[in-house]
From TrEMBL:
Protein's recorded name: Endonuclease/exonuclease/phosphatase family protein
Keyword Amino-acid biosynthesis: no
GO MF: endonuclease activity; exonuclease activity
Residue ranges of the TM segments: 35-55, 62-86, 92-111
InterPro entries, per the entry: Endo/exonu/phosph_ase_sf, Endo/exonuclease/phosphatase
Residues in Endonuclease/exonuclease/phosphatase domain copies: 150-362
Entry keyword set: Endonuclease, Exonuclease, Hydrolase, Membrane, Nuclease, Transmembrane, Transmembrane helix
Keyword Membrane set for record: yes
Lineage: Bacteria, Pseudomonadati, Bacteroidota, Cytophagia, Cytophagales
Gene3D superfamilies xrefs: Endonuclease/exonuclease/phosphatase
Length: 395
């Protein structure tokens, strides 16, 4: 018998053994599933929920609902593990408990874990602010103190022209649309460093205001160029407070309508944000410049956008924030929708939510960064600003 035939026979034997093992395991799983259908279904759902949150390879709107349910899937999965241990199903229960422990890799996105592992006090820091200003309510425009919103670079969403803000910066890029006959709103990016290149887009929205989009600006920062992206992903306008009010007042029909409408808005939001993020990523993927992405993502840290960006970028609040850092200043309050992501070129020094600035339905997020290469470059060289040749006009 030739060597080829011997090898083919050996390979066939291994495949038969593997197939038999998988078949027996499958039969065992089916039998156990029939005995404990609720516990096994719960663990299976928990497994896929965690997998999607950690590595969101599928951008379908349905995965958005699955990922959003992780905070509920974790305790349900833990209860199922305890129940299966009680029923002497030790192998599946142990595997489930290990998966519960792995879930903390995702849950930690919710909490800032500020650490000071490197002394960056003598280095040049870059202060970046991101704020959904809700068009600056008209009652604050007169006598408005804009100094708390001053930074080296500031990114505004739902921005309407404000002289107090604009006089604090040397350069700007705007993308505004007509909101009504009296105002324009949109995106604005301000910088005290020269803007050398820029691109922006407002996405069209049928039957709604065109306020979502992004601005991408290349900025001359000392002896380097950095790329800053100001993004405002699809707004859902979910009205959870109206559903709660209807339930409290006993209006069941109105409550059901609000729940169905919320589901529809969430579905629409998941679908459109996934498509919008792909376009934003095309401007930062493989960038030769250090990247900062900030703005209103209209998704929690369990969302697709956060998970997708986390594969290549680091979240500033997750690494250098403290506490929970909620940024929504309206019902349901306890969410963080505004984020700042950076490439590996940066050290994240601080990140905080400015909850004292409360005129908008969002709180500002401000962070300080240190360019890693600056740790080896004298601070006086990095701090030199290139001459400002022009200020970007409204685009």
């Amino acid at each position: 018998m030739s060597i080829f035939h011997k090898f083919a026979g050996l390979l066939m034997g291994v495949l038969q053994l593997l197939w038999g093992t998988l078949t027996n395991a499958g039969r065992l799983f089916v039998n156990r599933y029939r005995q404990f259908p609720i516990a096994y279904t719960t663990l299976s759902y928990f497994f896929f929920t965690m997998a999607f949150c950690y590595y969101p390879v599928v951008g379908h709107w349905l995965t958005g609902f699955v990922m959003m349910s992780l905070p509920l899937a974790i305790p349900c999965g833990l209860i199922s593990c305890i129940y299966l241990l009680y029923k002497q199903q030790k192998m599946i229960a142990t595997a489930g408990l290990i998966w519960v422990l792995f879930s903390f890799l995702v849950v930690k996105r919710l909490v800032g874990t500020s650490v000071g592992d490197i002394d960056m006090s003598p280095t040049q820091t870059l202060k970046v602010l991101s704020f959904n200003s809700e068009t600056f309510p008209t009652n604050i425009n007169n006598g408005f103190d804009a100094s708390p919103l001053k930074a080296d670079i500031a990114c505004f969403q739902e921005y309407s022209p404000n002289q107090q803000i604009e006089r604090q910066y040397a350069a700007k890029v705007e993308k505004l649309t007509c909101f009504d006959k009296d105002r324009e709103i949109g995106l604005a990016l301000f910088s005290n460093y020269p803007i050398v290149n820029q691109y922006g887009r407002i996405w069209n929205r049928i039957h709604g205001p065109d306020i979502n989009g992004f601005l991408c600006a290349d900025i001359a920062y000392g002896t380097d160029t950095i790329r800053v992206v100001n993004v405002h992903l699809w707004s859902m306008g979910v009205r959870t407070n109206q559903a709660v009010s209807a339930l409290k007042e006993g209006h069941i029909g109105q409550f059901c309508f609000e729940v169905i409408d919320t589901f529809r808005r969430l579905k629409e939001g998941f679908k459109n944000r996934n498509e919008q993020l792909l376009e934003v990523e095309s401007y930062v993927a493989g960038s030769r410049y250090p990247v900062i992405i900030c703005g209103d993502f209209n998704e929690t840290p369990m969302g697709y956008s956060y998970g997708k960006l986390s594969q290549n970028f680091r979240n500033a609040f997750e690494e250098a924030g403290q506490g929970l850092g909620f940024t929504l200043n309206r019902h349901p309050f306890c969410v963080r929708l505004d984020q700042q992501f950076v490439s590996s070129d940066w050290h994240i020094k601080t990140c905080e939510t400015l909850s004292g600035i409360s005129f908008s339905d969002h709180f500002p997020v401000v962070a300080q960064y240190v360019l890693k290469k600056s740790l080896a470059i004298p601070a006086n060289i990095l701090a030199q600003r290139k001459p400002l040749t022009h200020t970007m006009a409204r685009n």
